[in-house]
Amino acid sequence: MFLLNSHPHHNSPLDPVDAETLGEGGADTVERFLAHRANHAETPLHALPALARELSVGAVHVKDEGHRLGLGSFKALGGAYAVIRLVLEEAERRLGRAVDIAELHSPEAKAVAASMTFACATDGNHGRSVAQGAELVGAKAVIFVHGGVSEARVAAISRFGAEMVRVDGTYDDTVAEAARVAAENRWTIVSDTSWAGYERIPGLVMQGYTAMVREALRRLPEPPTHVFVQAGVGGVAAAVSGHLALTFGDRRPTFTVVDPVRAACIFETARAGHPVKIAHGEPTVMAMLECYDPSLVAWRVLKHVADVFMTVDEQDAIAAMNRLARPSGNDPAIVAGESGGAGLAGLVRAATTPAIRAAVGLDETSRVLLFNTEGATDPERYAELVGMTPAEVIGRRQAQGVTA
C-alpha cells in the first residue's frame, strides 16, 4: 500500500514544542549526555554503491545502529537517555539547584536514583534501553512484555537487573498495564509511545534518537534527497523526519514512512487523517514494529513532515535482511534484524514499482539514507531467517576489510 501525505498540516511548521524537542538545541543536549557514557561510540555509516546501481539511484547509505551502546538497536539512544534526564531533574527538585550530567554518579544523585523505579512496556529493544539506563544510574526497572516477546529478548533485558512482567495480549495491552501498575506504585513510566496527557517523556525518548541523524549527516558526502524509515508507533520516524526538516527547511529530503502491512497503524492514521488504533491480526515477523496504536506525539510531527506512507509485507522484510547479509559487489555485509531492514524493504519496493518510484521522485541522481534500526537482537531467529549466524555475516564483512 502507498499513500501521499494529504493532511492539511503537511509542509507547515512543526508545533513549537516539537521543534524545541527535535531541533539543534535538543540534539546538542543528547550528544553532551552521550559523551558521558563509558561505552559510547559513533555507529558506522555504510555506502552501498552496488545496491544503488541495482535500484537505479545515485547512492544508498545505511546508518547501522546494530552497534549502539552494546544493545544492538537505536533504542539504546532513547530510553536510557530519558531515564538519565529524569533522574537529574528529580535531583534538581530535591536539592534545589541545577544538577549537571557530570554529577550523575555523585553521592547526591545516586541517592535520588536509588529511590526511583522506572517502568515501561516493550517488544524488546526499548525495554533493554530503559533497563540499561536504570542500572547505569542505580535505579530500579520493571519491564512489561507480551507473550510474543522471545525468551532471548527477555533474557537480554533481565541481564541489566530489571524485574520482568509477562502480560497477556499485544504490545498495546502491555502499554496499558505498565501505565496502570506504575500509577498504582508511583513509579515513573518511560514509554516510547504517547497518549493524551502523557507526552513529555516520549518526547525525550524521541530526542535521544536525533543523535544518529546528526552522526549520519556529518559522515554523508552530500545531504540525502530521500529517506526511508520504518515505523512502529512512529517515534523513530518522527524523530528522524522532524530533525531533518528543522535542519534543512525547504531543502529537506523526501521522507517515506514504512509500516509492516500486518501492523500498519501509522499508515492507517495517515489515511484517516487522525490517530487510528487498528485491530490486532496475524503477528508480523517485524516484531519490533508490531504496534497497533500510534504515538500521539509522533503523529503530531509526521503529519507535518512525512511525505509518503507505505507498507511492506513479510517477505519484503526477510528479503531485505538477506540482501544486507549477502550484498552485491563490494558492498559491506550488514547484520539487520527482522525490523532493522524494513526501511530498505520500502526502498526496494518503491524503486522497483514504477508508480511509486515516480510519485516519490526516485531517479538516477537520488541519494537515499536508510537506518538499520537493529542488529540480530534474537540471534536464533536471525539465523533461521537468513541461513547464517550473525557471527558468520560479521566474518564476511571482516573478510572484506570492513572492521566496523
Automatic annotation (TrEMBL):
Its cofactor is pyridoxal 5'-phosphate. One of its GO terms (molecular function) is diaminopropionate ammonia-lyase activity. Gene3D superfamilies: 3.40.50.1100. It comes from the Bacteria. Signal peptide: none annotated. It is an enzyme of class 4 (lyase). Keywords: Lyase, Pyridoxal phosphate. The keyword Hydrolase does not apply. PANTHER family: DIAMINOPROPIONATE AMMONIA-LYASE, PTHR42937. This is Diaminopropionate ammonia-lyase. Residues 40-353 form the Tryptophan synthase beta chain-like PALP domain. It comes from Sinorhizobium garamanticum. Its EC number is 4.3.1.15. Residues 1-22 are annotated as: Disordered.
